[in-house]
Amino acid sequence: MSDNIEEIQKSVRKYIIIGVALLALSGFTVWLSTVELPTHSLNILVGMIVATFKASLVALIFMHLNHERPVIYKVLAFTVVFAIVLFVLFILSAQDPLVFEGFYDRNE
Amino acid sequence: MDIPYTVSARPDTGLYNAKIGIWLFLASEVMLFGGLFSAYIFLRVGADYPWPVWDLDVTLGFWNTVFLIASSVTVVMAWASIKLRKYTQYKLCMLATIACAAIFMVNKSIEYSKKFQHYAVKLTDGTILTGHLPHGYQVKFENVDALELTIVGSNKAVDADPVNHVLTSVVGDVPKFKFPSGEEKELNKATFAELRKATRAAAYAKMQEERAKMNETAEKAAAEATTDFAKYEAARKLTIAKNYHSIPDTKVKLIPASPLKVAAKPSQFFGYTGTNITFIDGTIATGKLVDDKMTLEVDGVDTRAVAQSDKSLAFDHRYLGEAWQKAFVASRDHHIAEFENKYKDENGKLTRDKSKSATLQKESLFYKLNSATPPAEGAAHGDKHGAEAHAPADAHGHEAHHPTVVIEKKDITFFSNFTPKLNTYYAIYFTLTGLHGLHVVAGAGVLAYFLFFNGRMLREDPEHLANRVEVGGLFWHFVDLVWIFLFPLLYLL
Question: What distance in Å separates the CA atoms of residue B493 and residue B487, rounded to the nearest whole number?
């Protein structure tokens, strides 16, 4: 993080603006969940996109990830990859690789 | 020796040490919460019941989001304030952060306690009634004329302990008991310990007697053995006899001087029949079952798992009855008509599948009761919250109570308060929010330590404290970040 006094002074304003934006986005998320999209999965998808956007704001601005040393990005790259693996693991519950017989319709 | 690189950057990483440390820790935290989010996905994909949506108090959850985001702003402002050497502003920002954390936790505990006091009762036809148990739930026995204790020989998980597990559910005065020795005395810790000691001593003697007998038979067989096989068998039996050390369990009967009345909570017993009840220490009390009905103040009827929702057991004449049934059907049909109106194209064809809309299923089939008596006929047609609008106010101006039903045990398949026991949604809800709550407490604790115990560092080495606050702040932002995902996943979607 830079130790430049002027820059910090400037960023204080930025923090408040981001905070207000996050609050507004939270309200938006609540409103969005009352809107009935064609399927509920779509609601979940849009909700998660908004949440991810909010999370990126926190990470980039509050956690200073918009200008950090390379070593931290290297650590986080691994984390992101493994976290994504965790989130798609559930596919195995629908398609068991041990008994998977290919994509065909059993009723045919 | 001082810890190096607390202020200046380490040449190889370009960072002060604590910063790389906290990022490694946060990476592991991402995996910890990632695993639980993964569990959430598994549970939700595999749920065999309608996943609860908007079941929690969204207003409370939203306010908690507000406080957490606000605290994220204040903690980063606190760091900037030290950098700018505005010490008063730093202190105020830290205080605000800790206050936000405290408010968050208070809200959380309100939310939790509401869930602990709220119950769901599943009936045999799949209907789920939700509501409150005004008197709790107890199984009542009368004329209990004997307690059968099982005093185990060797250590087991369940061992007789009637003083702590049976007498606590006796109603009224506890009479004296007739002990196996024939004496009539009070049952308390001392007398039971005495009884237990004597019983176990007798059981031990019995075991020794048994062992001696086995030994004798085996020795006799060894002496008489002629063939190799017989000798081998005898030697084997001798070994068994030598190793025999199983002390038998003993059943002991205590007869109360006058018949007992018992009222036990579900957590106090394993099970019961019409004539006896087994407490969690294994003690069986014989008597007569007088009451195992459940009095429930109903605030919701969930018929989503019932084939014919209007024929739900909840509307049986013993329970909510015909008037509520009518109100339910009116509300259900109103919601269906509303849906049909909303999603109709020019040709009058539906653009959405009724059976696939979870929202319609919930609105039409999960009926909320907001008054003690059913709303007047036609009221439910007028607006969405017909029942609510017509709820008569009680003397204090509060919303009137809910209807009370007395449910027979034979109609109940399962009941629980809104805790992890109820379903997988509440299991993952408590796991995720509980762990998150612990993070809030820990994070606030660390920040409070910096504020209250690092005053000297603030004066003498502000750059060092600024780094500490930055690292504590990074953890705090992570806690906020987790909540940003938790709030929509658990409350809204």
Answer: 9
Q: Would residue A69 count as lying in a domain?
A: yes
Q: Does A101 map to a domain?
A: no
Q: What is the pLDDT of residues B421-443, one digit of tens each?
A: 999 999 999 999 999 999 999 99
Residue A47 forms contact with B (CB below 8 Å): yes
What is the C-alpha separation between B451 and B447, in angstroms, rounded? 6
Residue B415 makes CB contacts below 8 A (sequence gap 6+) with B119, B120, B121, B122, B137, B294
In chain B, residues with a C-beta closer than 8 Å to the C-beta of A50 are 488
Domain boundaries, chain B: 17-118+421-492, 128-135+295-416, 139-293
Boundaries of domain holding A24: 5-94
Cross-chain residue pair A75–B27, CB shorter than 8 Å: yes
Q: Which two tokens stand for residue B250?
A: 């003993």
Q: How many CA atoms lie within 13 A of A37 on its CB side?
A: 13
**A45, part of any domain:** yes
Give contacts of A27 with chain B, Cβ < 8 Å.
62
Number of domain units in chain A: 1
Asked if residues B37 and A52 have their Cβ atoms less than 8 Å apart, the reply is: no
Angle between helices B87-117 and B424-453 (to 10 degrees): 150
**For B204-228, how does the pLDDT look when each residue is reduced to its tens digit (9 = 90+)?**
999 999 999 999 999 999 999 899 9
B313 neighbors B126 (Cβ within 8 angstroms): no
Q: How far is CA B300 from CA B67, B92, B132, B389, in A?
A: 31, 46, 10, 16
Distances (CA, A) of B49 to A38, B122, B425: 21, 12, 10
Is the distance from CB of B371 to CB of B390 less than 8 angstroms? yes
ipTM, two decimals:
0.89
Residue A46 inside a domain? The answer is yes
Q: How far out from the chain centre does Cα B287 lie?
A: 32
Distance CA B488, CA A49 (A): 11
Facing residue for B359 by CB, picked from A26, A36, A72:
A36
Cβ proximity of B2 and A54 under 8 Å: no
pLDDT at A2 over 70: no
Contacts of B493 in chain A (CB under 8 A): 33, 40, 43-44, 47-48
Rounded to the nearest angstrom, the minimum Cα separation between B469 and chain A is 12
CATH tag, B17-118+421-492: 1.20.120.80
